[in-house]
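The instructor's notes for this session suggest beginning with a concrete chain rather than abstract definitions. Hand out the sequence below and ask the class to guess, before any prediction is shown, which regions might be ordered.
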Amino acid sequence: MKAPLAILFSTPLAFAAPLPLAIGTQSGGSGLSEGIYRTTFDPSKGSFTEVKLAAKYPHPGFLALHPKLPLLYSVGKTEQHPKGSVAVFKITERLEFLAEASSGGTNPCHLAIDPTGQVLAVANYADGITATLKLDRNGLPTGPGFAQRVEGSGPRADRQDGPHAHGVYFRGGTLLVPDLGLDKVLTWHLDLATATPSGISTAVWSAAPGAGPRHMDFSPDGKHAYVINELDNSVSACAFEASTGGLTTLHSLPTLPTDWTGKSTTAEIQVHPNGKLVYASNRGHDSIAAFSRDPATGKLSPLGVFPCGGKTPRHFTISPDGKWLLCAHQDSNSIAALPLDPATGKLGAPSTTINAPNPICLLFLPADS
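After discussion, reveal the predicted structure:
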């Protein structure tokens, strides 16, 4: 059995070693994607190896790792599950398909596995259903846990006609779900043994009307959460109470320059491993907004907005050494490595850009895979 990712990245030597990178893609786009791809990123040079197909699978957008086993999970859509699927792959030199199950809703866009490896959660965007699957000791789905749609809508009729779950995040046994259609982050407290909630969902946080919360990330100490709002191009800094799953807004800041007048929406948000920086992507403006973070208060201060090196930065990830931001450009079929200065938070021009078909998710794999 391979060691967990956190252990593999825990030493300085691991930081300098080339790292395998999985690429989730959008099938049917201009890049003619066939499934999940992989490359290797060398942080000592800021370079990639050739992108190769790792597993054929339709619509494998978002990816996640099992916390203990060498397994990769992907959302998708297949003939067996045309509304939405979740697939499991064994991580080898390629990816070995093991199993799949229904996503419990329509158009799954995000998934996560709880820290104990017992429950998989998935956000289904089209119908707004949040669903869970019970996982066995081998990390394979054994059956559904629950599937629930929280009714409501927002003021943007074109995007908020109903619930649109867009992300799933575990904090222990608490599942938090940003819902773009409801302008809320919902929460369920789960019984991990059954993958079912102990009560009804509670709206623990409300965004500004029409903001459209999409994704979120947490500070290393777990005391603060950061929500990226897709529709009004903002980031909300929140205090997080782990015992209840409660969020309290500290403030919200724009991700775009004040003089920008074009069309743009946000996509991804990540807290830097050092806990002192936060990054967010802008699609349309095609940039990465950088913020400094006060570890004591959790509040953010703008550092600048930097070109991302391609068109439509749907997703990005930060290298374990904290010195690179790898950005997936959905509409230019490319991935760029942007040098990142952990001291200042500033991003440089792309060191390397490689071709990849419609990349929409980047995920580092265990170093020995």
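Then share the key points. Confidence is low (pLDDT under 50) at residues 1-14. The first helix runs from residue 5 to 8.
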